[in-house]
Structure prediction request, 249 residues.
Amino acid sequence: MTNFSNTAAIILAAGKGTRIKAKNKNKVAFKIGGKPIIEYVVDKLEGIGLGQIVVIVGFQADSIKAVLGDRVLYVKQEKQLGTGDAIKSALPALKANISSVISLYGDDSAFYTEALLKEMIAKREKEQIDLLFLTIHKDDPTGLGRIVRSKNGKVLKIVEEKSASKEEKAIKEINTGLYCFNRKFLDKYAHFIKKNKESGEYYATDLVEIALSAKKSVATHYYKDSSVWLGVNNKSDLQKAINKKTLLK
Prediction:
């Protein structure tokens, strides 16, 4: 039986939302079906009975705090230095009893189900996986990180589109950005993420190659129903999410 009270969630919600042209509030505070996106996420995490929920804030942090109040612990990302930096900034705030850590984006996780999140946490704990991440199939994977595998199906890396070869761009299995970590792995290896030379940011996706290089266990949790993930990056995406609101649970 999985003890979910030993799991913490880190919700990444510090971004500026440039593509959606967010101004007076963070995009995770935008509403789907009359409720802010991030509230759906927190409702599900609370429903699982997690031991701790940490929200990384930055841009328009007050708009998030107005939605969530004291339901979560807030950690401020002082500078917008990427997802890897955001995760690192949360580590000092984690409780001592936490053994598993899930990391997810505040703007694309509203459609995840409690059952899926439980599956991820239970799988990581049962199989003692250091880094487990969710993948789905997208007919049009444009702009998304592709899962590169060996001939026998072993994960080799996640490659972002701008760095992908023609063959890699044809891959339709993508990374959703939902990770489940062994807390000990994260404490030791999160600081190995190097600054990206092009963007100057630190990317959580680099943890896959870091783990493989360190001979740590890496696995994927492939989910056939791709409707559980919908990235809200612009107004068009937001409208798609609103149109799908009947799928929210």
